Amino acid sequence: MIRTLLLTAAVSAAVCTGAAPVFAQSAEDESSQAQTRTPSFQDPEAPELTSEPGSIVVLRGLDKVTARTRDFEAPIGEEVQFGALSITVPYCRKRPPEEPPEVYAFLEIEDRRTDGFGVQAEGELMFSGWMFASNPALNALEHPVYDVWVIDCRS
């Protein structure tokens, strides 16, 4: 996967600058690639993606004030509440068991606010991005009271 990302980055840089890709084998290859300018973004040795999209994401939330954690499920496309947070998960995927384990999901998290009299005001978008179960600190929610991370993606 890293090799695929590096090759894609090299091809993208070459296309943007108008130069031949850095991994060209010979001057003949460079001239043919420079003429066609249609590099392949697929690595022939890269394995095909076999991860499956899910319909329910399992999340774990931590309340830093009480030091309590809670596991909860978030159906894809539906809004769930955790404390003062409103969480929507539009997409998740999970690799099959025969591959290295990885679960990743796209989350949108809003901090629900009130106006001081109990009337809900417009929330502030605190997080919008991908979270990975194998490395939750890679792209973490930064909130003073709550932490949320991905545990699983189920069909």
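[next item in queue]
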Amino acid sequence: MRFINPIPFVRDIRLSRDFYETTLGLTVLEDAGSFVLFETGLAIHEGTALERTVWGDVAGAGDGYGRRNLLLYFGHDDVDAAFARIAPHVELIHPVERQAWGQRVFRFYDPDGHAVEIGEPQVTSDVSG
């Protein structure tokens, strides 16, 4: 068994594709209309189409998307440059901050209200001696 990728449900597949492709700079590997796969492994799916596929009907027509229960994490070598490029185009949760574990990150919402985090590479220390 191996994990493949997260697939957030989105209300407007075109708007979300444009957001991830243009604002975040991700490369599209596949666009099947209601499903878009990016080079990073992230995939997005038009919510009502996926609801029909999985459950056979449309329950809330997008009411439950982006409910503060999912964080999409991306790494970036220059978090300050990423912040300068992305921040003017998003609703920020917070600007670049140093976390308790030492990593600098910023967070914002995608068009469906999913939280997105951009963080600098984690520095690991050798504790073996």
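[queue empty]
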